[in-house]
Amino acid sequence: MQQLMQDIRFGVRMLIKNPTVTVVAIVTLALGIGANTAIFSAVNGLLLRPLPVENADRLTVIGGETKGLDGGGGTLSYLDYHDLRNQARGFSQVLAYRLNAVGMQADGKTDALLVSYISSNYFRALGLEPALGRLINGDALEKPGGAPELVLGYAFWKKRFNSDPGVIGKQVKLNGNETTIVGVAPEGFRGLYSLVEMQAYLPLGVETLWSSDKDLLTKRDVRELKVLGVLEPGVSRKEAQSSVDVVMDRLARSYPENKDFSAHVYPEWLARPEPDPSNSTVIAGLMLMALAALVLLVACTNVANIVLVRATGRAREMAVRAALGASRLRLSRQLLTESIVLGLAGGAAGLLLGSWISNMLSSIDLEAFGNRLVFDFTLDWRVFLFGLTIAVLTGILVGLWPAFSISRSDLNQVLHEGSRGILAGTGRSITRSVLVVVQVAVSLTLLVVAGLFVRSTRNAEHTYFGFEPSHVLNLIMDVRNVGFDEPRARQFYRELEERTKALPGVENVSLATSIPMGYVNQVKTVYVEGKTAIAKGSAPVIDCNDASVDYFATMRIPLLRGRVFNKQDTEKSPHVAIVNEAMAKRFWPNEDPLGKIFRVDAPDGPPLQVVGLTRQGKYTNPTDDAVSFFYLPIEQSPLSVRALQIRTANAPEALIPDAERIIHDLAPGLPLVGVESMEQSLEGANGLFLFRIGTRFAGALGLLGLILALVGVYGVVSYAAAQRTHEIGVRMALGADRSHILKMVLRQGFILVGVGVVAGLVIAFGVTRLIANFLLGVSPSDPLTFVVVSVFLVAVGLTASLIPARRAMKVEPLRALKYE
Questions:
Q1: Would the pLDDT of 720 be above 70?
Q2: What integer is the mean pLDDT of 123-152?
Q3: Contact 374/197 with Cβ under 8 angstroms?
Q4: Which of 430-439, 511-520, 620-629, 657-666 has the lowest mean pLDDT?
Q5: Alpha-carbon gap, residue 778 to 459, rounded angstroms
Q6: In the predicted model, is pLDDT for residue 37 greater than 70?
Q7: Bridge partner list, 614
Q8: pLDDT score recorded for residue 315
Q9: Separation CA 545–CA 642 (nearest Å)
Q10: How far is CA 50 from CA 55, 270, 288, 399, 461, in A?
Q11: DSSP states of 361-420 as a string?
Q12: What is the Cα–Cα distance from 607 to 576, expressed in whole angstroms?
């Protein structure tokens, strides 16, 4: 320990002795470690940080899946949940919840709340205690007609009620129904759905009284619940899966609705925000971590070059210390200790940089369900441990080769050599050149990945969405939030359309249940007449939208054949539908879809006749490719959330005050869930946001790798030119002109960059295969991207070599001949 402390003190003195070199090395490491820390903090916040609940390590998600379906969402029916809760072994608790929005009227103000309708054991299973009052508990609350009890989220209670403890027992109206506030959830608990914060919690049985989902608790094919299980101590997830399989097999034999329906047990952190068998969120996180690791590799090779040069320059010092009795192991340990100290200093600076970047990421302003998404990427002990680990490993990595070099040196020979002989070892020069080649190769890989993401984003921006997003304003609302029944609601929406059409500059006005790439999506099970009978519960689930008469004119969706909806498509008229090209090809290939019949929700449901065919479009995200979709008349659909969409000749934002005034004249106190232009909506999480954030991440990492690689090229070429000063003097004395010297120095830089580019192309060709699923409209081996990046890197690399080459041209022959 005494020797270690001596090594550390001596290492710190040596670093202080060369402040310029030390600062460059620390900044280089800080950039690499900071990038890794920032990305790890994001992965930690999204996936790794456990929920603030009891037994978070034993929490699992039970996600449903139907074989052959287009979708499903991983949800289960209440009856399936109830059977799993009572029959599945290996779980101490099985709980369920469903997200929805309600309107709360209190103290003369109406708020739109994002709530969780929860099973009676929700809080008990999570081991939570109330911050105030009591929590929802009791099996009777799962039955229709249960007491309307409200538990407020802690953050919402602080903001809306100013932390007033007197709210317990307070009567408020939810969707026009009297409700009692009975408690406040514990501080720090945001709910179980990641990225959003629950503002309140209600008993599951209450939802059937307030919404159109009257069959939520009674039908096995109404699958709307997110289900979680708490494993018993000592029970593995594999054992729990076996028990769940037994129950689901029994249900499949007993109920036709459960044919081909199964349930899978996921670790809770792998099911954020939804169960995903492909683990796309995890893969995306690992991909970003891998890119950041490549940046750190470039930084390490850069610093390794610096440390190697310093160690080479200190060869005489090491030889003298060896002559005085120091062992090779002792000398190697000293150099390794210095590099670890350097790594820790770079790690400390990197953590500061990573913290700053993480705070910026946490402040991303993005909304869903009318609420700001919660990005909590603050640093915790996992991030600090990660930063410390990579700082130490980086220090070891950059110090290994200098320590190894010293251990192999003939120290007796070093004492008899001049300084030029010490510094010009062929092996060390080759090592430095190899490190630069690695830097260039990794930098090219990063730039290729960044280039592919940039092209994907441009493709997403210029892709045809199937509609025209410019000059459209969206206002999303649900009049059930102020207690309107269905007849009154329909009258409200009719008047709203008529009054909005009269506003100056308005071209078209329409209503729809959802907007493209929005957060409210509607799916229905489809049964096609004339096709092979499909068992209930295993029919395809297809996305759809309820639309008013002028919807297609407002959104400018091209109609290929047939007609759009008209005023004769009412509740009492025959039910009709409009399908897109993909749905027509799927169910009626090589046939005219007009006049075809299909049913939704049940094989014996009302027949829907196809009256129109629309062009293919994007519906839930920009990567939708040949997705089946259909539209239903809004007058033939049950009441739900509505989006008022206004096409205007002017800037859509200018219409917001007038549109809101009309809404509140017709329904005082009605909260609006979302107000934004269609173009702003497309920038959301389901639109272009992920493309843009991915491009920025990859672009920043690519730029960082490029800078570090160019510094490495410049350093090696400059150092090599300095070492050849004597040779340059001899050449010039023998008649070599300055252009010859320029070519000689540039040749070395060109070889380094060229070899690095070739190696990088091979690496990039393999790496880009791993990101193919995240690209849009561009091949992972896109020739244009590879060629442009290669030419750019060669050009910039030669530019970096030109500076020391020009300096070498200006060497005076007489001075060069005296160079030692």
A1: no
A2: 84
A3: yes
A4: 430-439
A5: 8
A6: yes
A7: 559, 580
A8: 62
A9: 11
A10: 10, 11, 21, 36, 36
A11: HHT---EETTEE--------HHHHHHHHHHHHHHHHHHHHHHHHHHHHS-HHHHHHS-HH
A12: 8
Which pair of tokens denotes residue 109?
């103000």
| Lookup: tokens for 135 | 């929590």
The kind and range of the H/E element at 351 are: helix 328-362
Residue 144: per-residue pLDDT: 66
Beta bridge partners of 512: 547, 643
Q: Per residue in 89-107, pLDDT tens?
A: 999 999 999 988 888 889 8
Query: What Å distances lie between residue 749 and 396, 427, 804, CA to CA?
Result: 28, 18, 10
Give the span between the Cα atoms of 223 and 193, in whole angstroms. Answer: 17
Question: Residue 632 is inside which H or E element, if any?
Answer: strand 629-633
The dihedral sign for the CA sequence 144, 149, 155, 159: positive
Coil/strand/helix, residue 692: helix
Beta strand ranges found along 649-719 (DSSP E): 672-677
Closest alpha carbon to 367 in 112, 157, 140, 673: 673
As a whole number of angstroms, the distance between CA 165 and CA 173 comes to 19
792, two tokens: 């750019």
Tell me how far apart the terminal alpha carbons of the chain are, to the nearest angstrom: 41
- Is residue 726 within 8 A of residue 661, CB to CB? The reply is no
Report residue 455 as tokens.
Answer: 């092209």
Q: 57 to each of 193, 198, 231, 269, 734, how far by Cα in Å?
A: 16, 22, 9, 9, 76
Peptide bond into 273 cis (omega under 30): yes
* Euclidean distance between CA atoms 321 and 415, whole angstroms: 11
The residue type of 284 is A
The residues, ordered by sequence, that sit 6+ positions from 83 with a Cβ below 8 Å of its Cβ are 247, 251
